[in-house]
Amino acid sequence: MSSESTTPPLIIYTDGAARGNPGPGGYGVVLTYGKHRKELSGGFRKTTNNRMELLAVIKALQILKKPGQAVTVVTDSKYVHDSVEKGWVFNWEKKGFAKKANPDLWRQFLPLFRKFKVRFRWVKGHSGHPMNERCDELATTAADSGDLEIDRGYEESEATLL
User: Fold this and answer.
1) How many other CB atoms are found less than 10 A from the CB of residue 67?
2) What pTM did the predictor assign?
3) Cα–Cα distances in Å, from 162 out to 1, 144, 156?
4) Taking Cα atoms as reference points, which of 3, 55, 52, 60 lies closest to residue 32?
5) Considering the domain boundaries, does residue 93 fall inside one?
6) Catalytic residue numbers?
7) Which of 22, 30, 46, 157 has the greatest CB tally within 10 Å of its CB?
8) Pairwise CA distance, residues 53 & 58, whole Å
9) Residue 44 located in a structural domain
């Protein structure tokens, strides 16, 4: 029996939320590996839902320690899922993310994506999937907390539009 077949899968569940779009927002992550489980979350004073969806994936990948490790990211974000699985983000990268939203986060995401063997799986949000519901709870709780960070990437890009 190969060691790969006995290795438990690493599955990352993610969600993002924004109270208003833009508005206070948060991300939630549940990482599972065999019997191990870790949760992550954070909140920001002004951001967008798509930024939080993508940031959730970034935060999860940042804590992984084994380059080349296979990981499945389960998300309810068509924005994140389709951008990667349909290859859009790689074309955006070639064009320097010209006129694309969230270039700061995509630039953080891509080296992490390339460091691991990441595949994405989409699930319908708010449909009773237990891990997706938990991530939503983490994200909305973070967005509603009084301890909100500044999403510099969002607020600085917004300031340049004024």
Assistant:
1) 9
2) 0.94
3) 61, 27, 10
4) 60
5) yes
6) 15-16, 53, 76, 126, 136
7) 30
8) 9
9) yes
- What whole-number distance in Å separates Cα of residue 140 and Cα of residue 47? 13
- List, in sequence order, the alpha helices (H) in the chain: 3-6, 49-62, 78-85, 88-94, 103-115, 130-144, 152-161
CA 48 to chain centre: 13
Instruction: Write the pLDDT tens digit of every residue in 141-150.
Output: 999 998 899 9
Phi/psi of residue 79, nearest 5 degrees:
-55, -50
Give the 3-state secondary structure of residue 141: helix
Tokens coding 41: 């979350």
Residues 4 and 109: their CA atoms lie apart, in Å, by 26
In a domain, 161, yes or no: no
Parallel/antiparallel/unpaired status of strands 23-33 and 117-122: unpaired
Range of the domain at 142: 3-156
Tell whether 104 is covered by a domain. Answer: yes
The CATH number covering residue 123 comes to 3.30.420.10
Split into its structural domains, the chain has a count of 1
Rounded distance between C-alpha atoms, residue 22 and residue 7, angstroms: 41
- Residues 118-157: tens digit of each pLDDT: 999 999 998 999 999 999 999 999 999 988 999 999 998 8
